[in-house]
Amino acid sequence: MSTLLKMVCLIDGEHYLPVTKSALNTLDNIEHIEVVAAVFIGGTEKLRDATPESIGKKLGVKVYFGPDHHKIPYDLIVEVAVEHHADVVMDLSDEPVVDYSKRFKIASMVLEQGILYEGPDFSFQPLDEYEVLTKPSLKILGTGKRIGKTAVSAYAARLIHREKYNPCVVAMGRGGPEEPEIVRGDEIEITPQYLMEQSDKGIHAASDHWEDALMSRILTIGCRRCGGGMVGQVFITNMKQGAQMANEVDSEFVIMEGSGAAIPPIKTDRHIVLVGANQPIINIERFFGPYRIKLADLVVVTMCEEPMASPGKVERIQKFIEGINPQATVIPTVFRPKPLESVEGKRVLFATTAPDSVKEVLIKHLEEEHGCTVVGTTPYLSNRPLLQKDIEKYIDQVDVMLTELKAAAVDVATKDALQAGLEVVYCDNIPLVIREEDNLDPAILEVVDQAIADHSNK
Question: Which CATH number characterizes residue 411's domain?
Answer without folding.
Answer: 3.40.50.2300
